[in-house]
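DM from R.C. (forwarded with permission)

"hey, sorry to bug you on a friday — could you get me a structure for this? deadline for the figure draft is monday and I only need the backbone to look sensible"
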Amino acid sequence: MNVKNTVKLTVILLILILVLAVIFFGIPLSKIVGYYDIPPVIDSINYGLDLTGGVYVVLEADTSTTTDSDAVDRSIATIRERIDALGVKEPTITKQGTNRIRISIPDIADQEQALEIIGKTAQLEFLAPDKKTVLFTGDVVTDAKGVYQTNSSGTKEAVVSLTFSSEGKKLFADATQKYYGQIIYITLDGKVISDPKVNAVISDGQAVIEGVGTLSEASNLA
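My reply, with the result:
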């Protein structure tokens, strides 16, 4: 091998070593010039389920007991919050058809925990002003939807309309009487999603949550 070919081979090897170093280790320029580092390329690669394994599941919502067309979309939002809390990278959550949700989570260590969190039923609770005492749960709410209502000033505002079962009707009436002028906290999976002030004793099994923003936000809350 002549000198010219040897030089070419050496240059190629040096370039290859440099490329591999950038891919696996990056370049700590901050230690050389005082600012900026080139991160390892490997850290920015999304490997997906085929390379790293993970969780893949399709959930089917039971829509036979509701006429709410946004129920599946709200379920997707709830599931996304739960998955984000796990701190995983690049989860994919998509709606299939009208009542299915496809979920894929690559490279997750505790797959059983992920499946448990994804599959559990969202827990809606109504709490007393102390934020500790559970007055009743979402089991007594038969319908919830975002709607417009006309307020005292004559303008339309978005609210969440609630309808309670016969049991919930009594529980809510008792709660609004006991905590008149105070706040009842509404939580979903332990997170406060609304804190309406009780402005009246409500005994007809119907209620609205005001101050929820836009109609879209009201529908998401419902």
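R.C.: lifesaver. Confidence is low (pLDDT under 50) at residues 46-52.
me: no worries. The chain has seven helices and ten strands.
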